[in-house]
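Quick entry, no commentary yet.
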Amino acid sequence: MKYSLLLLAGISCPIFANTVNFACMVQPAQIVEIRSPVTGTLQQLHVKAGSTIKKGQILAQIEANVEKSATQTAYYRTQVKGNVATAQSKITHATKKAERMKQLSAENFVSRQAYDDAINELSQARAELQLAKENLKQAEFEYKQSQADLNRRKIYSPFNGVVMQQYIYAGSMVGPTEGKNPILKIAQTDQFKINAIIPLKYFRSIKKGQVVKIVPEAPFDKFIATVKLDHVDQVIDASSGTFSAGTTILSNSVKFPSGIRCKMYL
């Protein structure tokens, strides 16, 4: 979506003199506290307060010596294919033996029991091969699980943005518990969220998709964005008699930052 910019002389906006307006805020699309999905020791932080971050970038590393060892062991098991080779060799030998026993039994050179024993030996060899293949497949699944556990020790950025705050340092204990041991606070900066609190009496006048004008506070009040509302609350806040409406825009479509106040003009 493209947003037009109007260059005006002042925040008083004389061209909107008779237009209804509401106080609003320009904020990052998301502000997130980053925590570790597992309990452990913070080994390394790759960013600090003020750092610009990209989606998928590694933010922090949790100590993972045990997980690395488990992953290496699991990988080794996936490469151990001796049991499969042995079972295949047994099948080859047992197949030839069963064929000989069948011919000899037909000519009465060996007993029927000897032939049955050869058939049973072939069946056992096939069962051993199946078991060896199943064990190898299980080893592959265990390796993938070990890799997943190891990857959870690396914390990645969920979006493009900036590090707002660093709470702790390398050597600290971290964990997934809500409200405890956050590592970082990050904000998404490639999108802005603009939200206005509107009195109840305007509820039927505000519609999703409606075009409004956003006037940021000084010194950015010369740049006005024309946008469409992408959400209008359908539940009224009973205590204040208000509801909210707003939109999300790309940050590069406007010439003002997030974290500022604004006015929304209908």
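second:
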Amino acid sequence: MNVHSSVATGSIPVTKGISDASRPVLLLCPPVLGASTSFGRSALRRGSTRLPRRLACAAPTDPIAMAKVPDRYLEERRQEILDAAARMFIDKGYATATMQEIAAACDLAPGTLYRYFPGKADLIAAVVGQCMDEYHDVLAEVMNASPTPGVGFRLLGEHVAEGLTQPGWQEECTLRLESYLAGRRDDVLRERLEGPLRETITDLANIIRAAQAAGEADPDIDADALALLLHSAVAGLSALAIPLRDTEAASEAWRMLTQLVTTLMVAQPTSTTT
């Protein structure tokens, strides 16, 4: 997806082309922050051999069964498993899907699947971990292509507005909501999800702080609170767009919020009395 934006930054139009060959990524809100993946094209894209940095379950290390299998094959097989698991969690729900069904979808024996992932919690953690990786990758790409933190912040907002209208956004939202519900009932899984989720909020807060330091945003704004507000807004809009079946309305609501936030963030000149 080419994320092209002509975003009004005050009175200066900004046009950027951000190339994301995979899909829109939920930048301001991994759902459970909110959801962005175009399922099957990015965080869950097929053929990827990259191991996720966060929430990942390590590749199988059984010294007998895996000793002669090339690493590339193991990584590709692992990706096939994650794709199938994600699809199963979206279509059937985390609680209903079974390891046996996921194994069958990958043409694997259940015992082989367990060598890659000891249980369903490990699978959903790894799937969401890939989404988190994509979030960080695209966030870095957008910010690196932006001349200032404030411009980058606005481009991220436009990226989310475009992403909200994409079918894959709702699929990832469903997936991440499933992970939230699973974490609600599994304290160990919740702890695995919590750290990376907080990190994504902190990343956005740091962008706001950078804009403040550059004189592009009011220094009195609480960056952490604003980042949490934006994440929560995307999560809510993403979730509501599923039953309401109106992604355009969700996108417009987000744009309205970002306009209000942009006005709020504008650094206020120091008033003087005469």
